[in-house]
Amino acid sequence: KIRTWTDRSGSFKVEAQFIDFHNGKLRLHKLNGVKIDVPVEKMCAEDVRWVENHT
Which residues form the SLA1 homology domain (predicted)? Predict the structure, then answer.
């Protein structure tokens, strides 16, 4: 499922599919095919809750 992920400041957003959460990092698959790892502490509270509910 594709969703919009937002950083804690609200200035960075990315459309991506959640792949995994490991070692404090979210692995996301962006629409352009690139996979990125983002530290959970950089994500907004809503996205952190989403990860907690889906892992």
Answer: 1-55
